[in-house]
Design goal:
Length: 180
């Protein structure tokens, strides 16, 4: 019997962090996203996980920077409106730690990524819905996905780091259990 869980966007956040001028960190997030986990095993080790985020929903707290990120210099939102992820494995390391591997597609380029996952537990909300919480962390090189724009300061330093840290706190809502 398969159990399906959907991301609860009201209780989840999808963020990224990147160094600016190598001295400070800029945080961005996606406001529109969806995802699903489907598993037959209670420990979720056979989970199939899919995720997508809408590029136009990107926010860094600065409208000009957000516009630049949506442009062809970075995400190319007009031609590539979504970034997507599809899992290839979900390996249990301990009671509350997993490694999630899968294929991330950004700007038409697909690359394998590995994310560390911490399971926060399962609870029933005030409406009788079963929820599960997860925190995911990982790193990618933005240039691997065709996000190659950069500037150089007068001193010769780079404006934007190549390394991007991914941080996701997601709450999943148990949707249905289906018979196979």
């Amino acid at each position: 019997m398969a159990t399906i869980w959907n991301i609860d966007p009201m209780h989840s956040e999808i963020q990224f962090k990147v160094k600016h001028l190598v001295i400070s960190t800029v945080t961005g997030s996606f406001g529109e996203f969806s995802g699903k986990l489907e598993a037959t095993k209670e420990d979720l080790t056979d989970a199939k996980i899919t995720f997508e985020a809408t590029i136009d929903s990107i926010s860094t707290g600065n409208e000009q920077r957000d516009g630049h990120l949506k442009s062809d210099d970075f995400f190319g939102a007009e031609q590539h409106p979504k970034l997507t992820f599809e899992s290839t494995s979900f390996e249990k390391k301990s009671d509350d730690e997993y490694t999630l591997k899968g294929n991330l597609t950004i700007k038409g380029t697909t690359k394998p990524v590995s994310l560390e996952v911490e399971y926060g537990g399962t609870a029933t909300d005030a409406y009788g819905n079963t929820k599960a919480g997860f925190e995911l962390k990982g790193k990618i090189n933005r240039k691997d996905f065709g996000l190659t724009w950069n500037g150089v300061t007068e001193a010769g330093g780079v404006v934007v780091s190549d390394e991007v840290r991914l941080l996701m706190n997601v709450q999943l809502a148990k949707l249905v259990e289906e018979t196979a």
